[in-house]
Amino acid sequence: MGIELSYAVSKLQSLSTSDHASVVSMNLFVALLCACIVIGHLLEENRWVNESITALVIGVCTGIVILLVSGGKSSHLLVFSEDLFFIYLLPPIIFNAGFQVKKKRFFENFMTIILFGAVGTLISCGIISLGVIQIFKKMDIGSLDIGDYLAIGAIFAATDSVCTLQVLNQDETPLLYSLVFGEGVVNDATSVVLFNAIQSFDVTHIDPSIALHFTGNLLYLFVTSTLLGAMTGLLSAYIIKKLYFGRHSTDREVALMMLMAYLSYMLAELFYLSGILTVFFCGIVMSHYTWHNVTEGSRVTTKHAFATLSFVAETFIFLYVGMDALDIEKWRFVSDSPGTSVAVSSILIVLIMVGRAAFVFPLSFLINLFKKNQSEKLSLRKQVVIWWAGLMRGAVSMALAYNQFTRLGHTQLRANAILITSTITVVLFSTVVFGLMTKPLIRFLARSKQTTSMVMSDPSTPKSVSVPLLGEGLDSELDIPRPGSIRALLATPTHTVHYYWRKFDNAFMRPVFGGRGFVPFVPGSPTERSFIQGEGE
């Protein structure tokens, strides 16, 4: 009995010590997040540094300090977790991007975004995979099978849409932002789908039927994920419009918007769809319908709440990646051959650059052939910026690499350790070097004479309230004339789609789901007071 009691006491003491260590780690991590925010604010006007690079550098410096204090045993406060990244950190970032995106610019370039994001990712993955198969087999890095080589292609084909948000400005370069970020969202989704397909299919026997099955699976995931996101957004708009929570409590409508947004992502994961695409399109639909159905106070609250959650999640990711870069367990395996690790990282960086160039420039050429308006064509300068801004690799690549080459964040194989450390090196190098040079490159190459005309706010986003889903300007039929023939449809397809979408939206969608001009009318509400004031005037 005494032995059991002493064992229980010692067990409780060890648990208490473990809990206290976790509390200390969380305190330090939160303090570092605060430091990132403060230092990022002080460097706001710097033309080279952005907040992602600031968080990375702080993370690396912190890792060095922890490494020294712990006597070389550890370099990070938290253990990297794919669930933490994919379930808790990524959803608010992607949702806020859809919620704040300039929809007119995004949908105007929708086919270009799909070409770059889906077809381009497949081309990049193929080139990187072929390159590593030819080169790595000649290097002594350990045993890798064909599935590992294809997985490497999918891992490094994934651009960092989070870092794109940091280095490109939606107001200064709206076209480049919509193309690079829109491509990044589709690219991340395609890379994750491609990675999962490589893990699930028997890649040792590739034949046309498997390729056809994969293509069909990709299209199915894209369509169903988009529809799920749109349906969840419409459901939230309908519930808030019909019940009008704001007449009793604005807290409820804000909470419902947040929970419905997160529900869209979790439903996609539940049905094995692309949560990235689902939550992105949910954000677009919510900003067009749901956001207009809540009270004025809730609009301000949701706009800043989503932006704040996204900002904290972005900072968290980059801070952790910086700290994890010095994980001593993985570097121990490559300490006897540092040249091999450097060579692998260098080869991967070159293949990433070649793989991206292989689709950006040819696809841009094809896209320009179908653009009749000279101002809509992608000039060589813009193509260079698109190519350069998409070279950064980030947390998606890290998470996929950990999934493929570790078990619960640990590895005992030299080849896997080399690829993990090489992934960390590529992420750090691409984020810092390419990220540092992106802003100056944009200023040098993409200084547009039409900046004033391009920087028009898209008021259907939560930043203002004056434009429909695909439009810019007043909501009147004078803006876009009625297409009179098939020839007009082919000549100006975007304007034609916009015209019919507006008619359909005003006639069927907004009366049911709300939106600008169709907000709930409740006695004593802000809507009624503004209506009475308008009548009095």
TrEMBL record:
One of its GO terms (cellular component) is plasma membrane. One of its GO terms (molecular function) is potassium:proton antiporter activity. Keywords: Antiport, Ion transport, Membrane, Potassium, Potassium transport, Sodium, Sodium transport, Transmembrane, Transmembrane helix, Transport. Its main location: membrane. The keyword tRNA processing does not apply. It is a multi-pass membrane protein. Residues 31-442 form the Cation/H+ exchanger transmembrane domain. It catalyses: Na(+)(in) + H(+)(out) = Na(+)(out) + H(+)(in); K(+)(in) + H(+)(out) = K(+)(out) + H(+)(in). The chain crosses the membrane at residues 20-43, 55-72, 84-101, 113-137, 149-168, 218-240, 274-292, 304-323, 343-363, 384-405, 417-437. It comes from the Eukaryota. One of its GO terms (biological process) is sodium ion import across plasma membrane. It is found in: Membrane. InterPro entries: Cation/H_exchanger_CPA1 (IPR018422), Cation/H_exchanger_TM (IPR006153), NaH_exchanger (IPR004709). NCBIfam families: b_cpa1. Belongs to the monovalent cation:proton antiporter 1 (CPA1) transporter (TC 2.A.36) family. PANTHER family: SODIUM/HYDROGEN EXCHANGER (PTHR10110), SODIUM_HYDROGEN EXCHANGER 2 (PTHR10110:SF117). This is Sodium/hydrogen exchanger.
